[in-house]
Input
Amino acid sequence: MKYDKFATKAVHGGQHPDPSTGSVVTPIYASSTFVFKSAEQGAARFEGKEKGFIYTRLGNPTVKALEDSLALLEGGQTARAAATGMGAITAAVMAVAKKGDHIVAGDTLYGGTHKLITDILKQYGVEHTLVDSGDPDNFEKATQPNTKLIYIESPSNPLLKLTDMKAVAGIAKKHGIVTVMDNTFMSPYNQRPIEHGIDVVVHSLTKSLSGHSDMVGGAVIASNDFMKQMDPVFKNMGATMGAWDAWLTLRGIKTLHVRWDRINENSVKVAEFLEGHPKVDHVNYPGLKSFPQYELGKRQMDGPGGMMSFELKGGLEAGRKMMNSVKLCSLAVSLGAVETLISHPPSMTHSIIPKEERLKAGLTDGLVRLSVGIEDVDDIIADLDQALNQT
Ligand code: PLP
Output
């Protein structure tokens, strides 16, 4: 049966009752290798002439169910699940950018991605330019004859700056450049970049899709052609996800839409509370009417999401005092989970970025990041209020 609605895809996508037992839930195929019926069959599978599993680094039935689910949710032709978000991002970027090539990327990236593009790949002869991703013209201006890849996060981590996906995808297509977008902050429930012309979507599955802070994983969702290009990198660098983590992610995805309805709803209330609090200087959140790109967010996102950052009037010291005073919220990195998490990007997730560069991108020392969970919103607000009042 064909179904188009997100909630049905989240519950059923990629999954079928197990043919041998009738098990409703996709089993955890905890096997590193798969038996061939004959030497000829083994050879045919390695040659790609016959479909079927060979060895879990190259493919596994539980992981395949997750990959099919992800492709369906993001609207891509196919997907690969990786051991971590960084494994997925590294494979997607390295599949395109080779020695002598150039990458244009947004200037406020997740710390690990920033390190990959600005330092690690530089050592392999890949150049880069970082641009303010809020204005699509900046991508056009930074394009060179050897530009092969545009890499964006929208909303960006942790300033929540949005990129006009349609505009950037149009620029990239004109120049024959591949676009890769990290959709971790939004999840496919709130935003599906492929619908806006982006070529490749990457995720840290550690976050919203698994949703329970109990695993690490990543994904790449793209066309069959892109995956043919990426597979040699991905399968040989060995960043493949294991069956157990695939199963946990599949379980998380079944409630993605329910969790995210609550996350979207709670977050607007939390952001409005913070914006109105006398100790808070400003709040970055796409769901606030005061957010400079509020209209763009409405146009390309189905909800504002659970991530926000803010700065206290008392700066770094007040922010530290607040983070040390929360009781319900967890002082921890990561995001998109059922529990509310509070963290300090400049000294944690983004500490890998040189200070000068961080400040230039607007990532100031006093910035606090919040990932709103699905607890009762009055309890979240009461906790934040008592912590703010300690500063
Ligand atoms: N992308 C974003 C936006 C992230 O926040 C993170 C991790 O925090 C990653 C990618 C990397 O994911 P992982 O930690 O699963 O490797």
Observations:
- The chain is about 40% helix and 15% strand.
- The longest helix spans residues 256-276.
- Residues 84-86, 110, 112, 153, 157, 182, 184-185, 204, 206, 216, 218, 349 surround pyridoxal-5'-phosphate (CB under 6 Å).
